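Sequence decides. Our protein:
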Amino acid sequence: MNKMSVRPTKPVAVMGMVAALAMGAFGLFFLGLLIKEGSGVGIAFMAVWFVVLGVIIAYYVYTLKSRKGIIEIEMDSATPDGSGAQGFDARLRRLELLKKDGLVTEEEYRTKRAEIMADKW
């Protein structure tokens, strides 16, 4: 398994930031209405709203300024044909280790080695 870091592209991060700022403006409008009405529950909800928006905005600022990935993903390095992304020499060495450890028989070893050698390299 290989690990790969990914992050949103710059246009996606900018779009997310714009959306979060628009939600902030919307929140300020409603906060003004709630303060006029004196709704304690509504004001508490808006406080949570602004904390969440702060986290979202911080995420997008970090994404825009950072060169490294935000999310790590574990990926299988095998290609769809099952040959693996590694070279034939690495596959032969791994097969040799399997034989040495007694995990494959001599016949299985010869068969698989012939398959590997027959692959295009």
Observations:
- The beta strands are 2-6, 71-75.
- The radius of gyration is 28 Å.
- The CA atoms of residues 77 and 85 lie 6 Å apart.
- The chain has a mean pLDDT of 84.
